[in-house]
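New here. Invent one.

***
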Amino acid sequence: MLVNTFGPEGGPPVLLLHGGGVAGWMWDSLCQSLERTHSVLVPDLPGHGGSADEPYRSHVETVDELAQVLAQQGKDAAAVIGFSLGAQLTIELASRHGELVDRVMVVSAQAKVMPFTDLTLQTLGMAAPLARRRWFARLQARELFIPPHLLEQYIDTSARVTKETLLAAVGDNLRFELPGEWSDFRGRALVMVGRRERALMRDSAAVVHAALPSSELEVVAGCGHGIPLQRPEWFNARVTDWLLA
């Protein structure tokens, strides 16, 4: 798994986990805000971006890889920020490898199992070739609030996601349930969701927060599913304040 690093080696470590269908480039703006003060780790998750040749197999295998990345740094426990698919991985990482994680920001994590998952995946599999069509990628980019200067990177990343990766990542995403160990996490936790996201996502944020009452729940007005890209300046400032608190 490709991991890009930014900032001083001795800085407090921050791990940024992107969503499905995008790659580490979605954090470019945030990296610029953090790289002067933090050691920032930005992986391209399996099957995505620079790791496109390594198929996504499961959340469990991916989290184990991420735990190795953190362990090999030999630094203090990390702050972990994840969006969508990356937010589910953030929860799993904090739940199963809490000794490596100081605090987490969980942005737009689905935490309620989708009904008719098998039918959804069957339909998705048939539609997979559309991801290589520019017109379809452009439509998807609007849903994620991909800014114009990142559109070509999104189209390229989307086109390189294989059907195998798509079905594995989305399958685990749709079936995701909170690990029991999440309630035992002792670090700081911020759960964030857009007020304009689907009811499923807002309900999921409430479930994640309720399972860890020490966490903070933040509903962001005016935002849909794509807060870090939809409101980057606000989000970057929020992350900076959260890391310093």
The beta strands are 3-6, 13-17, 39-43, 78-83, 101-107, 188-194, 216-220. Residues 122 and 167 are 9 Å apart (CA to CA). The chain has one domain: 3-244.
